[in-house]
């Protein structure tokens, strides 16, 4: 039975955090990358019992240590001691025959799991897509466990989730464009760029949103700064679709300037007639 006393809240997008009864620990509190990796792996697999050999391989696969099972026992002891000290939890991690697991008496609420559910719902959606897009985008606060560097499994998951996020942002932007919700489209792009400032597609969404709002000079400035950024950081030139958009913007700016010149000329002629 789920109660407020047995529910824990976990975030893994951007950085790890574990919340229980209004108290929070994170990777800085834990002060050990190995401890964070062990805890997050247990949490990600909280619905099954994990053999000690699997956990040891996950932690030390590329390292040569004499007694990985003994090292694992020591790490589990440290994790349990931390949970006891910070939350008074003495039963969160259980021990079986050569295996460890999360106590099923606790209810796990995790941003990654919610993201997966939301993504599946979007795939099968027949209406209500806007709310699902908003929920998924809100859940993704940054790359998966960004504080852990050089771990192949984590980097693989990070790339997987980031690809889904970017794809869903593009889809939602297209939906907003179809509905002519250009201000919301602009907000979406700006927020996404804060998460990934080297993704050209996000800048194209932003420039399109500004273009449709007739903010041509702003759109031109974003195009110019974007092309400079991407060339300096990645050595790439703007895509054809971005160049085509740039040409449309230049045309609008030119026509605006022509209109201004015509108005100025009319004012001069009126003044001369007086």
UniProtKB/TrEMBL annotation:
Pfam families linked to this entry: BTAD
Every copy of the Bacterial transcriptional activator domain together lies at 110-250
- Please give one Gene Ontology molecular function term for this protein: DNA binding
SMART domains the UniProt entry points to: BTAD
Q: Which residues form a coiled coil?
A: none
One of the GO BP terms on file: regulation of DNA-templated transcription
- Spell out the InterPro entries in the cross-references: AfsR-DnrI-RedD_regulator, BTAD, Sig_transdc_resp-reg_C-effctor, TPR-like_helical_dom_sf, WH-like_DNA-bd_sf
Record's SUPFAM superfamilies?
A: C-terminal effector domain of the bipartite response regulators (SSF46894), TPR-like (SSF48452)
The entry's protein name is Bacterial transcriptional activator domain-containing protein
Query: Could you tell me which species this protein originates from?
Result: Amedibacterium intestinale
Upper taxonomic classification of the species?
A: Bacteria, Bacillati, Bacillota, Erysipelotrichia, Erysipelotrichales
């Amino acid at each position: 039975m789920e109660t407020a006393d047995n529910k824990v809240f976990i975030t893994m997008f951007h950085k790890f955090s574990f919340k229980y009864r209004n108290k929070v620990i994170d990777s800085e509190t834990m002060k050990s990358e190995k401890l964070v990796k062990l805890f997050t792996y247990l949490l990600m697999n909280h619905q099954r019992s994990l053999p000690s050999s699997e956990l040891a391989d996950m932690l030390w696969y590329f390292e040569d240590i004499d007694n990985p099972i003994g090292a694992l026992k020591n790490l589990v002891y440290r994790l349990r001691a931390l949970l006891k000290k910070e939350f008074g939890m003495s039963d969160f991690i259980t021990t079986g025959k050569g295996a460890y697991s999360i106590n099923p008496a606790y209810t796990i609420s995790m941003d990654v799991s919610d993201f997966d559910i939301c993504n599946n719902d979007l795939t099968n959606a027949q209406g209500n897509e806007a709310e699902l897009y908003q929920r998924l985008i809100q859940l993704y606060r940054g790359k998966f466990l960004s504080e852990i560097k050089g771990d192949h499994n984590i980097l693989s998951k990070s790339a997987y989730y980031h690809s889904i996020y970017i794809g869903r942002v593009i889809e939602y932007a297209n939906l907003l464009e179809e509905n002519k919700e250009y201000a919301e489209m602009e907000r979406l792009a700006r927020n996404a760029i804060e998460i990934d400032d080297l993704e050209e597609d996000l800048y194209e969404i932003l420039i399109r949103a500004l273009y449709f709002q007739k903010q041509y000079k702003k759109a031109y400035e974003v195009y110019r700064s974007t092309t400079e950024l991407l060339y300096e950081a990645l050595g790439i030139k703007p895509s054809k679709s971005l160049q085509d958009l740039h040409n449309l913007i230049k045309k609008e700016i030119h026509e605006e300037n022509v209109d201004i010149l015509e108005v100025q000329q009319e004012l001069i002629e009126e003044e001369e007639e007086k």
